[in-house]
Amino acid sequence: NEGKILLVVTPADAKSVIEILRSDPYGKDASVAGYVKETRGKTVEMKTTAGGTRILNQLSGLQLPRIC
Fold this sequence. Notes:
Elements: H1 11-22, E1 44-47, E2 53-56
Antiparallel strand pairs: 1-2
């Protein structure tokens, strides 16, 4: 899973960004992984494969790169 990137772009730009990424062999599997919506709280939620929702907690400790 090394060499991955997460881009946050406007919905209007998403399609063109995906097309640009897929034009390179390294970006052939590029896809939209989620979206940002306005809510009351400030949480990051992930939909599970079972159809539920899981809150992703902020990482604890120093946010240093993990070097293998």
